[in-house]
Write a structure and sequence with these properties.
By secondary structure, this protein is α/β, with parallel strands linked by helices. The protein has 10 helices and 13 strands. Bound molecules: acetyl coenzyme *A.
Length: 319
């Protein structure tokens, strides 16, 4: 499987740390030093499906194919306004595709999970030539905006990649282990006359330091697996593109692998944590600003609620 096109879309509203400090007991200094985030793009009037469709259009254009050429669409999403139909069905219609599609929810690791499924489709279905993966997320709608320890972390956005049959992807490692307590959100479903259990809903709950440790351990483990599987060393990897959750998580992983800063490009300062969209958004930035060179060895790694995590190793063959 090869990546032949990337795209992204951000909502137009920029919210700086200083803007947050007008209604929260926080500061630019605290947010910057603890997270690396300076500003984020937030959904105000736009709908998430509009951002998803825009990211898809940009990725298709970059790939030089049209929506009719797609054989499958996989959409990674944690939350959006529709419970049903799936976001992928909505986006399929908006971009004018007719192929089968479905959503997956593997939290912030969704892009890696979608890549693994796409890779399996290419191997098992001979009639599939192009797959579109789109990760569209609005985590800012999950937060309590009076709760300074969570709402400052997130941003909204969409990232997409067009995939084609090929052998650029060398390894994908996924890991999941049930650990709900550190990071969850519960929603209340509609009442029925028969419900007797106690039910409640509320905003995102996070134990930041637990998530920090889980993220670092899972990412290091997945990265080790894909690197070892290819018989190479950490030094042989040109770029590590990590989920943009916190610059300190990225730095802890980088130091542990004993790698140069230049190998860990990041954009968290501009966008915050956009959940599963963060890795394809970063990939698109690096594709478009021509940071990535043909033949580069790239590791992608993401981690999130569940706890779910995954990494993959690929050769970049796109110009
Ligand atoms: N502004 C000012 N002070 C704050 C803020 C804020 N926005 N948020 C928390 N504080 C305060 C706390 O109340 C606490 O005060 P206290 O000492 O008086 O009790 C103090 O700062 C320290 O809080 P900690 O939670 O210990 O701070 P920490 O250094 O752990 O940083 C953070 C918190 C940024 C959440 C960190 O734990 C983290 O990034 N964890 C990873 C979580 C993550 O990335 N989640 C994203 C979603 S999941 C994912 O994508 C993997």
């Amino acid at each position: 499987m090869n990546i032949i096109g990337t795209g992204r879309a951000h909502p137009s509203l920029t919210v700086t740390n200083d803007m947050l400090s007008t209604f929260l007991d926080t500061s630019d200094e605290w947010i910057t030093t603890r997270t690396g985030i300076k500003q984020r793009q937030l959904i105000s009037h736009v709908k998430l499906e509009d951002l998803a469709a825009e990211a898809c259009h940009n990725a298709l254009k970059d790939a030089g194919i049209s929506a009719e050429d797609l054989d499958f669409i996989i959409c990674s999403n944690v939350v959006n306004e529709y419970i049903t139909p799936s976001l992928s069905c909505i986006v399929q219609g908006m971009i004018g595709a007719t192929c089968p599609c479905f959503d997956l929810n593997s939290a912030c690791a969704g892009f890696i999970y979608a890549l693994d499924i796409a890779n399996s489709f290419f191997k098992s279905k001979s009639d599939i030539n192009h797959i579109l993966v789109v990760c569209a997320e609005e985590p800012t709608r999950m937060c309590d905006w009076q709760e300074r320890s969570t709402c400052v972390l997130f941003g909204d956005g969409a990232g997409a990649a067009v995939l084609k049959r090929g052998d650029d992807f060398k390894s994908i490692a996924l890991s999941s282990f049930s650990s709900i307590d550190p990071l969850y959100q519960i929603r209340q479903l509609e009442k029925t006359p028969f419900i007797t259990k106690e039910e409640f809903g509320g905003p995102l709950v996070m134990k930041g330091q637990d998530v920090f440790k889980l993220a670092v351990n899972a990412s290091l483990n997945d990265i080790r697996r894909v690197v070892e599987e290819n018989g190479i060393t950490y030094d042989d990897v040109d770029y590590y593109l990590l989920h943009q959750a916190n610059i300190r998580i990225i730095e802890t992983i980088r130091k542990s692998l004993d790698q140069d800063k230049v190998k860990f490009p990041h954009n968290i300062a501009n966008y915050g944590n956009t959940s599963s969209a963060s890795v394809p958004i970063l990939l698109d930035e690096l594709n478009r600003n021509q940071t990535l060179n043909r033949g580069d060895t790239i590791v992608l790694s993401a981690f999130g609620a569940g706890f779910t995590a995954g990494a993959c190793l690929l050769k970049w063959s796109k110009n």
